[in-house]
Amino acid sequence: MLSRLTRPQAVAVCALPVVALLATAAFAPLPFSLAQPGLTANVLGKNQGTEVITISGVPTRDTSGQLRMTTIEATNPDAHVALGDIVDSWFRTDRAVMPRDSVYPSGQNTKEIERHNTAQMKESQDAATEAALAYLDLDDKNVKVTLELADVGGPSAGLLFTLGIIDKLDGDGSGGDLTGGRVIAGTGTIDTDGTVGAVGGVALKTQAARRDGATVFLVPKAECSDAQSELPEGLRLVPVTTLKNAVSSLVALEQGKGSVPGC
């Protein structure tokens, strides 16, 4: 024989599974990664004691200012990310919650991911060299470019590598620096034809850039709204779609002539 429950008793009994579910969710690992602003590196200088860009076969020029590539740091693919971590990060401007598969290729272990990111970086460096030499109308048989950047993977430094090569070889084309002595930061992939592609994580990258002294940030035009969402004070966004308009925008900033696009 079943006894009849009063309303308060019924509510309490029904609440038990909900409490248990919430408790489980609070501690169970979830398929997300937590990201934050990562390191930046000046491609015109040294990283961990080694020149990032080394060029031989043709004369190079001394540069001033900085061109800083930017990164984000994400939790390890094997890390335990619980509901409490997500809730905490959700309300912080210097953190982002991202689906794990958008950060790390699905089904790959840590070593496979490292190999994948290293391969992407190598492809990005090759494309950056080809795009820069094509822009300057130089024969790659006569020019050797070596790019070294430790502990960074993926393709998102492509644009900054390309601009760094151009600055070391030609500057603004009239004897000046592309940077105009500023700290310029940015992100974006590069194709061999000079097309700039989107990369993700730009809201966090702008914070890393401003933290490390940048006043101008080159952003793929398609990601303008993301970059504006948490834009640090004192950082100017310059949208780019191609290598050509990235260079022309920097030259306009450096010389104080012509229009510079904004988001």
Task: Give an account of the 3D structure.
The protein is globular, with a radius of gyration of 23 Å. Helix 4 packs parallel to helix 5 (158-169). 38% of the residues lie in helices and 21% in strands. Residues 1-5, 10-14 and 16-28 have low confidence and may be disordered. The chain has one domain: Ribosomal Protein S5, domain 2. The protein is built from 8 helices and 12 strands. It has 263 residues and is α/β, with parallel strands linked by helices. The longest helix is centred in the middle third of the chain and has 26 residues, at 110-135.
Comma- or semicolon-separated keywords:
single chain, 263 residues, alpha/beta, Ribosomal Protein S5, domain 2, 6-stranded mixed beta sheet, two-stranded antiparallel sheet, 38% helix, globular, disordered N terminus
